[in-house]
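chain below, 118 aa
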Amino acid sequence: MERCSKNGAISNNYDGKDNPIDQLQEYAEKIKEGNAIDATGRPIRVNENTRIYLYAVCDVPASLEKIMRRRNFKQTPDGLGWHVYVDDLNASIEVLPYDKILADSKMRSRVFFEKLGL
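prediction:
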């Protein structure tokens, strides 16, 4: 899968602040500062002990892998996703490719339907 950049061009590369990791961290900062609102327009209120869980579902081109390695992300046990804990935000970030989510979902469903005898 490819993504569209801000100017509409197709891109496989992430650079500078144009990457999902920075976008997630900026939003977590906004939440912690009390400057984020929910879907209904109400402020999101948290305290300093609130743990934030952030997920990016996206393709992982080499440029994004490079960013994640520089920020000490670790691969998931199956080697398909990435995760890191950001201490100063009290936040966990997971980067999961769509293909991994789909494969995991199919695997869970298969076992469920086998147990039902279907």
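Residues 1-10 have pLDDT under 50 and may be disordered. The helical segments are 20-32, 62-70, 98-116.
thats it, cya
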